[in-house]
User: Fold Major allergen Pru ar 1-like from Pyrus ussuriensis x Pyrus communis.
Amino acid sequence: MSSISSRQEFTSPVAADRLFKALITDSDNLIPKLMPTAIKSIEIIHGDGGVGSIKQINFAEYTLDVENLVCKYPLVEGDVLEGKIKSISYEVSFQASPNGGCTCKMMSEYDAAGDLEINEEEIRGGKERAMGMYKIVEAYLFESPGAYE
Assistant:
């Protein structure tokens, strides 16, 4: 079994705490509203939405550190894995920038199914879809200055 890690980073004019709230802690409400054709709903299956909760979307359990603006979660089932990937582990963190915006860092680790090999070309599409979601939420927050204050 092979494994590959990938890191992404982008800066945003939106404050770190607002982007974290919109993308992580309130994603089950906001994401389906902003991208109804991509994500129809996100339902809490177990818990109250905090640490140890399970949400019914493309990822299941996750670790949430609200104080440090960090979210870690695995993707262990779903069409996106296409039978070649056993699982994907994600870590997303938000850090305040001096200009009032933030830097978002995303780390993904892909574990291949069986003896299959994974290369960067194969995971590029997933990274682009994730970045598209972040940019949609960022645009919403930029156009709605009072949201998630």
Observations:
- The chain has a mean pLDDT of 78.
